[in-house]
Design brief:
The protein has 275 residues and is an alpha+beta fold. The protein has two domains: 194 residues, Glutamine Phosphoribosylpyrophosphate, subunit 1, domain 1, CATH 3.60.20; 54 residues. 41% of the residues lie in helices and 25% in strands. It is built from seven helices and twelve strands. Strands 10-1-2-11-12 form a five-stranded antiparallel β-sheet, with helices on one face. Strands 5-6-7-8-9 form a five-stranded antiparallel β-sheet. The N and C termini lie far apart (51 Å).
């Protein structure tokens, strides 16, 4: 089991997963755990998995996104995804299937969101954010604090939050999580983009420095020293806070430019923007 996270932001949804694959015998390899599928009707579906069997998860993820692409509406989508998982699960007969968990994001037709899926027939709407896999354990207490109330932040803010969570998961569950981070964004108008792995890596590096800074603050707050003797530390914390804020603001996600291409926009929206 590894780490995958799905989150909503204003105007879309994003899923991401690490690339470390751990086999049942302990051997490790690298590979993508995120699948993307598109329809001619400008619907985009991205699915990330956390699983005991990476090959089985990728195969079923592809079938699930194909089923989603064939759906006539949201109710039909849930029905088709359940049916696909149930058929896969039934194929094992009396044998125990490997544990697979998925986060399925959808965008298009002025809607976006995420579903949590687990064979044989569990499909649940995710309100704002969810993490799956072994790496979810250390970050679950942070999810609501970072993403609740209902997201009113943009996509860059969502990516920074996810970079921090991925850094924590990889640091604290290094035996199961690692490698780079594969990230896919879908928007409510059907646009999509993969975020460059190098861009997420830089964001995770900044997140690591933020985590160290937060640790230093905890030490200061729990110190028995009197406030007067901590003046130098307070000034240092303030300076470091401003430095990290500037670092985060300076991060560039050039991949996001694909979401602004005019062909994603509806005719009505294009006309409104030209007025």
């Amino acid at each position: 089991m590894t780490i995958a996270i799905g989150a909503s932001f204003e105007g879309g949804a994003v899923v991401c997963a690490d690339t470390k694959i751990v086999a049942t015998d302990g051997a490790t390899t690298n590979g993508s755990k995120v699948t993307l599928a598109l329809t001619p009707k400008k619907m985009a579906y991205a699915i990330a998995n956390a699983a005991e069997d990476g090959n089985a998860a990728n195969m079923l993820a592809s079938e699930m996104t194909s089923a989603a692409c064939s759906a006539a509406n949201w109710t039909d989508l849930v029905k088709r995804v359940k049916q696909t998982m149930t058929e896969w699960y039934s194929g094992f007969g009396a044998a125990r299937p490997p544990a697979l968990h998925f986060l399925l994001s959808h965008g298009g037709n002025e809607h976006s969101g995420i579903y949590f899926c687990e064979p044989p027939n569990t499909v649940l709407s995710v309100t704002h954010v969810m993490a799956i896999g072994q790496g979810a354990r250390p970050i679950e207490p942070l999810l609501d604090k970072l993403f609740w109330p209902i997201p009113k932040f943009g996509v860059k803010s969502a990516l920074l939050k996810l970079a921090y969570l991925m850094h924590r998961a990889k640091s604290e569950e290094g035996s199961a999580c690692g490698g780079s981070t594969t990230t896919v964004i879908v928007s409510s108008d059907g646009a999509y983009t993969f975020v460059e792995e190098g861009e997420m890596q830089k964001a995770e590096e900044v997140a690591g420095r933020m985590e160290k800074f937060l640790g230093d603050i905890r030490k200061g707050l729990l110190s028995p020293e009197k406030l007067e003797s901590q003046d130098a530390a307070i000034k240092k914390f303030t300076q470091k806070y401003l430095e990290l804020t500037s670092e985060a603001e300076a991060l560039q996600f050039s991949s996001l430019s694909w979401l602004e291409r005019p062909w994603w926009k509806s005719k009505k929206e294009r006309q409104r923007k030209t007025k």
